[in-house]
Amino acid sequence: MTERVKPLGRVYEYIGPEVLRADAKAGIPKCRLRDCPDLAALVRTLELAEPNSDEVTLTYVVDAGGVLWIADRHSEHVACARGRGVLAAGELTVTPGRPGLKVIEATNQSTGYCPEPGSWEALAKALDSEGIPGPSRFEHVFVFRRCTACGATAIVKDEFFECAECGDALSADWNFGPAE
């Protein structure tokens, strides 16, 4: 009998524009945060413009295996994930720490994957497994829903579950993938 491996969390599949998915395997510079021991190495590795401060905000994904990948903030999450599903996606702000870099802010802001607030657990586990200090929660939490009336991707603000495009009510439950 084969032992089943328990999934690390919901795998979010890309739901954004197909043109971006088609370009996803183009090979934008990305790396694991642990592989950049300081801010200068991060800037070089990801081919970033020199930051104006000692903080850098980056695009991140946690792949289905639980590995944290980062790329330039202007990169699409689907490109950072090379078109694959993710456990978490959003933005990280990093600053020098001892030793290595420290994550000072994180969000789940990704309209290409629309991860739920609960995706924090996958990011926290990835940071912990790499020994990278970070926050205890998302700094800004985004709640995404698909409008069943017009198909728009909506961001719920102030717990107001109404589509800004057509005014229809939005689902109380996350509704971008197959029902679990």
Structure commentary:
This protein has 180 residues and is α+β, with helices and mostly antiparallel strands. The chain has two domains: 18-140, no CATH class; 142-180. Helices cover 15% and strands 22% of the residues. It has four helices and seven strands; from the N terminus they run αβαββαββαββ. A five-stranded antiparallel sheet has the order 1-3-2-4-5. A hairpin with a 4-residue loop joins strand 4 (86-96) and strand 5. The radius of gyration is 17 Å and the shape is globular. The two termini are 25 Å apart. The model is unreliable at 1-6 (pLDDT under 50).
In terms of per-residue confidence, which ranges show pLDDT below 50 for 5 or more consecutive residues? Answer: 1-6
Q: Measured on Cα atoms, how large is the radius of gyration?
A: 17 Å
Strand composition percent: 15-25%
Question: Which strand order do you get reading across the main beta sheet?
Answer: 1-3-2-4-5
Quantity of strands, as a count: 7
Average pLDDT number: 89
Main β sheet profile: 5 strands, antiparallel
Helix content: 10-25%
Judged by helices, strands and strand pairing, the structural class is alpha+beta
Count of helical segments?
4
Multimeric status of the protein: single chain
Distance between the termini: 25 Å
Shape: globular
Count of distinct structural domains? 2
Order of helical and strand elements: HEHEEHEEHEE
